[in-house]
């Protein structure tokens, strides 16, 4: 004789089978591994980067030593990533790669570093130092014409001026720190400040954001962008350098052809 399955038991069984709702796309998104969103930030292309070298007013120069600061800016409209440790190479004026190698990093610089995300307009720097004097017995020196920075499979380069020396039978070497983000200076005010300069000139300065300064003098407006400085806030365009120290003192200097930092201190200007 056939047994009849109780109606109540059958209902409970069906409810148990359907109590878990199917996983939706939103549920799957919530289960995505941490950092998946960051995967959409691609590596920087050379076309969206500007590479310059900054002597930092000679702060690297010493007895038979010299150096420079690598300055890398994201000039593009989107964020991108770069390796935290620069990978430079050097070439002579004929494009021949020179046998110049990096020293093995030590201390904090030896640690592994995650790639750096550069927002539009963001800047990173790296300090490079080397022996510039022929201090070795039977030593040798090279004077590269260009420095090229490897960015994954791509390259970006800039002109180089300097002399790197090494011991006999060994390549010339340099020490290099990982890239470090440059903190944007605190914006002063959007209202113009009137500076009276020692040469009798009046400079009206407006700082619309942390990256730019607009100067008006000699009946012309000049739009400058932030540049690396050891102290204060330094702004430049193709012809002028405006270096402010605090809210009330600044120096206006001309940039000679090929200069990224003015060789002259410039004219002192003071705001009330």
Task: Write up what this structure looks like.
- The protein is mainly beta.
- The chain has 2 domains: 46-181, Immunoglobulin-like, CATH 2.60.40.10; 193-270, C-type lysozyme inhibitor (Lipocalin).
- The protein is built from 2 helices and 21 strands.
- The strands form 5 sheets. The chain has an 8-stranded antiparallel barrel. Strands 1, 2, 5, 7, 12 and 13 form a 6-stranded mixed beta sheet that branches.
Low-confidence stretches: 1-39, 185-189
Beta fraction: 35-45%
| Number of E strands | 21
CATH homologous superfamily label of the largest domain: Immunoglobulins
Head-to-tail CA distance between termini: 108 Å
Report the major sheet: 8 strands, antiparallel, barrel
Output the CATH class name of the largest domain: Mainly Beta
CATH architecture label name of the largest domain:
Sandwich
Run of helices and strands: HHEEEEEEEEEEEEEEEEEEEEE
Stated plainly, the CATH topology of the largest domain is called Immunoglobulin-like
Gross morphology: globular
**Helicity range of the residues?**
under 10%
Mean pLDDT equals 80
Rg, Cα atoms, Å:
29 Å
Number of domains: 2
What are the main properties of this structure?
eight-stranded antiparallel barrel, Lipocalin, six-stranded mixed sheet, globular, disordered N terminus, 272 residues, 21 strands, single chain, Immunoglobulin-like, 2 domains, mainly beta, 2 helices, 40% strand
């Amino acid at each position: 004789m056939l047994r009849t399955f109780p109606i109540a038991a059958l209902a409970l069984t069906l409810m148990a089978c359907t109590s878990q709702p199917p996983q939706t796309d939103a549920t799957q998104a919530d289960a995505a591994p941490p950092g998946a969103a960051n995967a959409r930030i691609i590596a920087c292309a050379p076309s969206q980067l500007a590479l310059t070298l900054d002597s930092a007013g000679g702060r690297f120069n010493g007895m038979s030593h010299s150096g420079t600061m690598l300055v890398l800016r994201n000039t593009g409209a989107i964020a991108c990533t770069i390796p935290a440790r620069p990978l430079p190479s050097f070439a002579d004026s004929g494009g021949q790669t020179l046998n110049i190698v990096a020293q093995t990093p030590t201390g904090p610089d030896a640690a592994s570093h995650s790639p750096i995300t550069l927002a539009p307009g963001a800047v990173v720097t790296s300090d490079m130092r080397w022996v510039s004097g022929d201090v070795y017995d039977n030593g040798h020196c090279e004077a590269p014409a260009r420095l090229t920075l490897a960015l994954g499979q791509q390259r970006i380069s800039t002109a180089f001026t300097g002399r790197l020396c090494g011991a006999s039978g060994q390549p010339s070497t340099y020490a290099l720190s990982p890239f470090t983000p440059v903190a944007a200076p605190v914006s002063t005010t959007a209202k113009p400040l009137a500076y009276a300069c020692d040469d009798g000139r009046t400079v009206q300065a407006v700082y619309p954001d942390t990256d730019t300064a607009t100067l008006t003098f000699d009946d012309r407006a000049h739009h400058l962008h932030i540049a690396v400085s050891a102290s204060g806030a330094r702004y430049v365009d193709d012809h002028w350098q405006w270096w402010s120290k605090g809210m009330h003192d600044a120096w206006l200097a001309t940039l000679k052809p090929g200069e990224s930092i003015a060789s002259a201190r410039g004219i002192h200007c003071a705001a009330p």
